[in-house]
């Protein structure tokens, strides 16, 4: 294949190639020769022999001062005047090479030496970089199986689109290297893990200040999935691992897919059976180029039983004590069991949740029970909940259907008329569905999530009344400098692209939540089926469950309808041109709970906060002002979940 350019300057192209080789090699001195300057192994503590003053545009000045070769000799103890003069003769070429890596191929460089300052004086460097070179074109050529395989057309287009992102941008060595690595990564992520860069050329037109990029990718033979091999499984059934790999789409004969391999690894880790999981496709074991490659899953098993004691607190509920017990393989059943006791200032909880291993279709049985006691003002609700159903979980979508029994008793210490007799019970059939399309977790920059739960049931007791219930929630992120397309960029494609550059303007976050319970006004619905809101994760500026239906004694009771909306501007904090792990936030929340949809008087909270992207997820600190109570509240929250 012949690569041509309309205006090719041979000498400039050779210069660019030499520049790339120069930057790709570690800076080291040549073999000493006659008149060469010896290089000390450690001269950082020696006094300065000469000073360097460099005059150049701001961004270039820091780059050149960091990489100019003269810097290596500033503290050389035995450097004399003649040796420095020889270094200054070579300095302009060194500076032009550095400027070429930033896209400036026609610079004016002046290097002079002036008396004063340190022993050998001051070196004054003036730089006029000239016009910046722009990337005028970026072409990708394919060889190997991908060049003729019809099923790979979408993948070819994805690679070409990635290379075209550089067109119109300033040329730099870093951008050129990044484009090559990103296009290769896109190719190796699906179907062709053995792909390589067969040829690449950055053709510089110094006259037109344009760069023409050419990349040839050799895909090699496609790789298809073979058997699953599990290493390290002793206590827990390895068939669960094999099943999860198949459910991720890596069935025998399927094309290699890095994203599906990562999904399988995450599914296996989420089971809780293993403290560490590493999955890969063994290309060496495949032997022949067209032989299936086995999927190898290396695991380290978690303890069979575990007890965790915890102490903590929250701005919602004050100090907290907890004890958790986990058994990963119950006798006879083989199910997992997780039991928990949690004591807080206003809430006490005793719960147990059991789940079966995943089945061939991806579903698994689960059951659970909980006893709870929560206090809100003068109201204390004691409740029992039992459930049985099946669930199917994946990184992008969760589904669940279950039967649920609720029983609750409310005691109001101020007004006996607001108390119940303990016979408020109900049974319901429910279906829940959650859809996630976030670009990266647990620190999403764009994308959205949608959750929906529908239920139908009847009250129990002397008089039975049917009811319908529904809950919906939405969370979306919109980067301000990437346009509306960011809402759906991750929803319609699974291209394994690199993360987009962070936005200096930040992003907008919109959270919506709603719920409704439809029943006869005389139906005695358990309070646990009704709604309260307010607190760290709903309407800030209000306490936990402070928003409900107002009562005669000044307290609030759960209602049949709920709506919550939250709007945030999340902006990263930059320092010295580098994005830090901190973000600033401005927000406004509003929420309402009512028994009459026509009665709408939302409670509003506004405020500001900080986010810290910690290893365990976002750490949130917010200061909110509730317009209703007219007071400030501090809210803390850790992690991201949807």
TrEMBL record:
Keyword Phosphoprotein (UniProt): no
Main location: membrane
UniProt domain Bacterial surface antigen (D15): residue ranges: 394-642
Keywords: Cell outer membrane, Membrane, Signal, Transmembrane, Transmembrane beta strand
Annotated compartments: Membrane
Pfam families: Omp85, POTRA
Taxonomic superkingdom: Bacteria
GO cellular component, one term: outer membrane
Domain named POTRA: residues: 223-301
Keyword Transmembrane in annotation: yes
Signal sequence coordinates: 1-29
UniProt name for this protein: Translocation and assembly module TamA
Species the sequence originates in: Hydrogenophaga pseudoflava
Lineage of origin: Bacteria, Pseudomonadati, Pseudomonadota, Betaproteobacteria, Burkholderiales
